[in-house]
Every structure is written in structure tokens, then in C-alpha cells.
Amino acid sequence: MAKKSVPVFDFPHPMDNDTLIGHMGTVKNFMNAWNNRDNHPIHPVWMLTGPRGIGKATLAYKLARMVYGNVGDFFIIDQSRNLDKDGKLKPDSKEISVYTVRAMIDKMQLSAMSDSWRVVLIDSLDELNKAASNAILKLLEEPPAKTLFLLVVHQLANVLPTLRSRARVEKMHPLSVSELRDLCVRFMPDADVSPEIIKLANGSFGKIADMKRSGGDVIYDELIETLKNNSATSSDLMMIAKKIAPAPELYSILLDTIAYFGLADLYPNATKAIADINAVHLEPEVGIFKIIMDVKKCL
Predict the structure, then answer these.
(1) 22-171 in CATH: which number?
(2) pTM of the predicted structure, to 2 decimals
(3) Which residues of the chain have a pLDDT value below 50?
């Protein structure tokens, strides 16, 4: 049987994305603070928190463009700009280094004489290693004048309490079904996005994008149907595990599968097993296969 090709979708980087759907409450809060900054000094540190894939970085860049103007001129810390101790790019690292933060601070000091507002955008705070987090904390103890910090945060609980206490925290919520559909029409007009995939997304367009880009929606359907099939063998399930293994962004469909079959008791062990797959460099298909087999044994 010929292998189906995975459709190619063009999802812009948040820096280049002019489409923001939802989060009007956060936009209004910022605009009120910014427009009244002469009467009431604006808080210099804004944390945009919420689940992955709901538009936090898109909003951060939108606010940065408004404050600063030219996107290329403000200070950005993210994985693509990650540096090693020699100042060389190290974009494949799982953590953002303290050297990246120090390089940004050095650039800021060179622009200290400017009377214009400056913007520091960090995407995301979760990815800073401990030394980098402490360097940011030290910077925020006495924030530079006329400098706005926009900090994207996926898991607020993982942020240092002392860092949280120095920020205005804006909690951004998952997108509604209608908002998700609007984004699908905008970025995937020809794609078949099923109601089941919309439901699985839990308000995250990023999850839908990952599923469609990698073919994860098809793999999920195949996994459900194979588990329902009493004639399916362990070899059939291992084949699916091997399809999931190369794409860590798809590991969450294992939890979605557990939810589909109403096997809540499997959640704790499965969650830990997924974390182990990511942290301990085991053969991922083996760990995934074990989770799938645990589901199968309960059916």
C-alpha cells in the first residue's frame, strides 16, 4: 500500500504572524496601561502565561512591535538565538543558557543612552536554565529605565517565585472552539480538521498545527481503531509506536487515547513514562509501546 504523504502547511513564526485571535482581555489590559503610562507608570515586566499553542508569543510580538516598531531591533531571547560559552549559536539545546542572557544584557548596555523605549522578549521563560533564570531575576531587581519585558510562560508553577513576584501576570486562556476553527480556516483552509481533533486540542491551535503537520491526527485515529480491534497484534501496536516515536510533540496523543477509553487510573504512570522518554534517552518506541500495551490490557 502506498504511503500517504503528509500535507505541507505554512505556519508563520510568531514574529511574522499578524493574525491574533482571542485574548482581547489581555490586549485591553496592556493597551490601557500603555496609553496611561504618563499618568501611571506602566509595570515594566509582563508575564503572558497559559497553555502552549494558544498565541502567547504571537501576542508578545504584537505588543513589542507596537511599543518599539521595527521587530528586528528589540532584544529577543529564544531557542533560535541560544548561545554556548564561546558565543556560538546552539539552537538544538533543550535549555536557554546564561550566556544568551548575558549577551542580551551586554547589547542593552550599548543602547543605554537611547531615550526610546526598549523591549526584551523572552520566549519562553520555561526554557531558561537555572543560571539564566537567576541572571534575569538579577536584572529585574532594578529594571532598566524605559524598558518593557514581555515574558512568555507555559507553566507558571515552574517559574521562580521571586521572578513571578516582580511581574504583572496575565493569565491567557485556551481558545474557544469557534476561535480554533477561525485559525484553521486562516492557516489550513483546505485541511480536514475533524471535530475530534478540535476537541483533543483543548483550546490549543498549536496542538492542531502539530497534529496536522506531522500527520498525528491520522496516527491517533489508527491507534484508536487498532486498540478497538480484538484481532490486533503486538506487532501492529509496535508499528504505531514507531510512527509516534520520532515526534515528541505527538506523545500527548497517548494521554488522549487514555482519556478516550476512560482509563483515568493509567494517567499517573503514563505521564511519568512520557517524561522518562523525554528525559532519559531510551529508545522512545519501546517506552511508547509499553504505554500502548497498558491501555490494551485494560480494554
Answers:
(1) 3.40.50.300
(2) 0.86
(3) 1-4, 71
